[in-house]
């Protein structure tokens, strides 16, 4: 596909949409709303709020702009985290749990709005089951849930709002697919 990119490739992660009956946003409508405000090369992946686009603004500015668009177009207050393609490439390259995390759907990366404080990391340590592993690197938490996330206290903490920062998680399959969609 030919690219008209005039800005940098960015990966936009909307927190908590299209999970159950609340916070429903159709991806075609979201793509259209983002294009209408000037974002280019807008593509989405699955229904859980993953968008790749091109923007001339910094990731933090893109996040605020997407939050405004979602509020105005869909009437929803949805936190948004944005990373550049280069940042997500570093996340994928680092892959600190790759040697133990053999099932991509049970290997999660939680993207944070800011680095975690020591108290939040201690909460994660206390929540992790003996078989689970996690690694905190900058504004990301990598977590391996070999028994799945359904009963995981670690997952519940990462997916909730008790860390003191905005957080949204994606499984390893989604992380690598978004990186692929973002291109070079």
Largest sheet, if any?
4 strands, antiparallel
And the CATH topology of the largest domain?
A: Alpha-Beta Plaits
> What's the overall average pLDDT, rounded?
93
Number of helices: 6
What is the percent of helical residues? 25-40%
CATH architecture of the largest domain: 2-Layer Sandwich
Plain-language structure description:
The structure is a single chain. The protein is α+β, with helices and mostly antiparallel strands and 184 residues long. It has 2 domains: 79 residues, SP0830-like domains (Alpha-Beta Plaits, 2-Layer Sandwich); 95 residues, 2-Layer Sandwich (Alpha-Beta Plaits), CATH 3.30.70. The strands form 2 sheets. It has a 4-stranded antiparallel beta sheet with strand order 2-3-1-4, sandwiched between helices. It has a 4-stranded antiparallel beta sheet with strand order 6-7-5-8. A hairpin with a 4-residue loop joins strand 2 and strand 3. Helix 3 packs across helix 6 and helix 4 runs antiparallel to helix 5. The protein is globular and about 50 Å long.
């Amino acid at each position: 596909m030919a690219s008209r990119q005039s800005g940098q490739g960015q990966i936009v992660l909307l927190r908590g949409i299209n999970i159950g009956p609340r916070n429903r946003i159709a991806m075609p409508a979201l793509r259209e709303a983002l294009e209408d405000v000037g974002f280019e090369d807008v593509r989405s992946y699955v229904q859980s709020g993953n968008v790749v686009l091109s923007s001339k603004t910094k990731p933090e500015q893109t996040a605020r702009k997407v939050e405004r668009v979602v509020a105005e177009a869909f009437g929803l207050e949805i936190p948004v985290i944005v990373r550049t393609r280069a940042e997500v490439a570093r996340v994928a390259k680092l892959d600190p749990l790759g040697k133990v995390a053999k099932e991509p759907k049970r290997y999660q990366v939680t993207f944070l709005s800011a680095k975690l404080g020591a108290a939040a990391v201690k909460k994660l340590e206390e929540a992790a089951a003996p078989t689970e592993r996690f690694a905190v690197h900058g504004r990301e938490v990598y977590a391996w849930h070999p028994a799945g996330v359904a009963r995981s206290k670690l997952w519940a903490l990462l997916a909730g709002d008790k860390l003191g920062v905005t957080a949204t998680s994606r499984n390893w399959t989604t992380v690598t697919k978004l990186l692929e969609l973002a291109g070079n």
